[in-house]
Amino acid sequence: MGALARNDSGEVLAAMACKGQEAVEPEVAEACSLRRALHWAQSLALRRIIVESDCATIVSAITSEPFNMNSSLGLILLDCKVLLASFESCRIQHVRQAGNAVAHELARRALTAEADEFRVDDIPSPIEHIVTGDRSLI
User: Fold this and answer.
1) In what order do the strands lie in the sheet with 117-120?
2) How far apart are CA 118 and CA 72, in angstroms?
3) First and final C-alpha spacing in the chain
């Protein structure tokens, strides 16, 4: 998974690239990534966040109720809801895959990395051009 934290001016605060769970359903993997990103945002002491995901199914599921609590996906979504409530302000929204290019590139880097990568006030140089282009859309 890949995630990028920005301030309200679009400047990078931190970047994360982590290996995800293997051999799970795509929606479960997306929900697990969301949960991990929310934990990460908490660890950065962020209080007001906007979460963007290109998985419309998860965005729809997390913003509506009820969801099936008897499934692993439902339990992960419940965790996400609890985490979302811990922020002073939080909004989750769907973006097209093209709008999530930085996160996808970070996730791609995680596949070949030996360890999870967390950076603060810094982005990996191979993706600077993507971040710069993405920032122009903010």
Assistant:
1) 2-6, 12-17, 117-120
2) 27
3) 22
